[in-house]
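Every protein is a chain of amino acids, and every chain bends into a shape of its own. The fold becomes a row of whole numbers, each drawn from a learned catalogue of backbone shapes. The protein below has been through that process, and both of its lines are reproduced in full.
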Amino acid sequence: MVAEEFSISVRVYIEDTDAGGIVYYVNYLKFMERCRTEFLRTLGYHKPAILDDGLLLVVHAAQVDYRRPARLDDELLITSSITKLARTYIEFKQQVFREQELLSSGLVRVACVDAALMKPRPIPADMHQQLSQLQISQI
């Protein structure tokens, strides 16, 4: 069984900040996207948003809570774990830390859709099976 939580480190650059020198709120979503992408890459999906047979993985919903600001040059730890695996979507719990301090947390639902029709489709069987073998984290 694979560990339930995956993480990456991210450095905050000037391009990530607003005029006040703090990370612009939408960039937390970008950091979370990178973490989910790298998580799926470790499972062998080298273009995680584009699957075989004309399928795409797209963000369907995102809920983000902001607690404390990250600032220029901070080193952040971004985590990702699966909280729910359904037939057509995966729900991820994601967190952003500076050292041990939780800065932001979110729930992101990623749906599998037909690229041409943009309609929900089942996650490919091999991917679903692989993800189902991971520990599902509790919220």
User: Anything to note?
Assistant: Residues 26-42 form the longest helix (17 residues). The helical segments are 26-42, 125-132. The mean pLDDT is 92. The two ends are 20 Å apart (CA to CA).
